[in-house]
Write a structure and sequence with these properties.
197 residues; mainly alpha; single chain; 9 helices
């Protein structure tokens, strides 16, 4: 991979990682509700889980999805159902220290597994492999996955950090409730592109 192509890949990984989507909406809400430090496993799960997805897509998973179209339908239905459930959970989250004692941020494993049903993550992985590892050579696919891991983590961390910063402003229960409902609605709206596919 030439230097110019590597820079283009880094730019692609940054833009697709830092722009709004399901992962970033959930990290923003987690930063508000749990703080930055408690959201770190969620961020790591996103970065490593998505990099693994990129690697697997590059090794041929994309071919399976195209060869058996019902797999895409199953993925879409599972994605929509899971995102609606997450939206409901975000909308009904209570302030830290209030309400349900069992409320906690996503774990590393939950965040990594979420990538399987995240439509934006699939689009990012398929686009990256198609553009930067079209021959599917192991070293190309591995490089694309590593670049995503390195670029994705600081990109998504911005959202959790912003969430923590607005947390003080959201100490008022009414403002926090309005914020959580707004995040839930934005998460649902992030499904619109999926439903059009």
């Amino acid at each position: 991979m030439t230097y110019d192509i590597l820079l283009a890949l880094i730019a692609f990984a940054f833009v697709t990682s830092v722009t709004p989507g399901p992962n970033n909406m959930m990290l923003l809400a987690s930063g508000v509700n749990f703080g930055f430090r408690r959201t770190v496993p969620h961020m790591l799960g996103i970065s490593i889980g998505h990099s693994l997805m990129v690697f697997l897509v590059g090794l041929g998973l994309a071919g399976i999805m195209h060869a058996w179209p019902p797999a895409m339908v199953v993925l879409k239905v599972a994605s929509v159902a899971y995102m609606l459930w997450l939206s409901w959970k975000i909308a009904h989250a209570s302030a830290p220290g209030e309400g349900r004692a069992g409320a906690r941020p996503f774990s590393f494993g939950q965040a990594a597994a979420f990538q399987r049903v995240n439509p934006k993550a699939w689009a990012m992985a398929l686009g990256a492999v198609a553009a930067y590892a079209p021959e599917g050579a192991l070293h190309q696919v591995a490089l694309v996955a590593v670049v995503f891991a390195m670029v994705n983590l600081p990109s998504v961390a911005v959202w959790a950090y912003v969430g923590q910063q607005v947390r003080r402003w959201l100490n008022d229960p009414a403002r926090l409730r309005a914020f959580n409902w707004t995040m839930a609605v934005l998460l649902v709206l992030s499904l619109v592109p999926v439903l059009r596919m």
